[in-house]
Every structure is written in C-alpha cells, then in structure tokens.
Amino acid sequence: MALTAPSRTSPVRARRDADGMAVASFVLGLIGLLLFNAVFGPCAIVLGTLAIARETRRKGRALLGLTLGIADVVLLIVLLTLNHSVFWQFGG
Questions:
Q1: What is the spatial distance between Cα 20 and Cα 68, in angstroms, rounded to a whole number?
Q2: What predicted TM-score, i.e. pTM, was given to this entire model?
Q3: Reduced 3-state DSSP string for 24-83
Q4: Which of 3, 8, 29, 56 has its CA 20 to 30 A from that of 72?
Q5: What does the pLDDT look like over 25-82, one tens digit per residue?
Q6: Do residues 34 and 75 make contact, with C-beta atoms less than 8 angstroms apart?
Q7: Backbone CA torsion sign across 36, 42, 44, 47
C-alpha cells in the first residue's frame, strides 16, 4: 500500500492565488511606471510569470502586468542612460 503526502493547497486555492498574482502583477507594473520602477518592475515580471505558469484565469491581466513590468525596466534603463539618475520629472 503506497502512501502519498497530502497536498497542502487545493486546486481551487492555487487557482485563486494565481488570479491574485495576475492582478498584483498588473497593479505593480502600473504603479512602477510612476514610482520605484527599479523595485516594482521586476516584481511585476516575476508575479506575471508565476501567474501564467500556474494557469490563471486572468491571463490577459497577467500578460499586461508582465508587459508593464518590462516597460518599467526599460524606462529605468533609459533614465539611467540619459539622466544618470533613476528619477524623472516633467518640465525642465
């Protein structure tokens, strides 16, 4: 008789966690365009990737969060290249 370890998370909870990751990825990617893109961008990328890997029902939101996270990192690189700073401002 083979014994197997019980699963710690049910499939319903895992799906709900993945949906939460997709939403968090989108929100962090969106906020990262304005604030702390060095922190929020990579977090959005990781959460979006994990949500897609865990087969979220909110795949579009996870992809959008992933895209916004990449845009955050690109914005950071552009700011570092042009201004030698991680801050951006309107006007002169």
A1: 17
A2: 0.77
A3: HHHHHHHHHCCCCHHHHHHHHHHHHHHHHHCCCCCHHHHHHHHHHHHHHHHHHHHHHHHC
A4: 56
A5: 999 999 998 888 889 999 999 999 999 999 889 899 999 999 999 999 998 888 888 8
A6: no
A7: negative
Q: What are phi and psi of 64, to 5 degrees?
A: -65, -40
The closest alpha carbon to 32, from 84, 67, 81, belongs to: 67
> Cα–Cα distance between 90 and 61 in angstroms, integer?
29
Q: Buried (b) or exposed (e) across 29-58, using 16+ Cβ within 10 A? A: bbbbeeeebeebbbbbbebbbbbbeeebeb
Q: Which tokens sit at 36? A: 């702390």
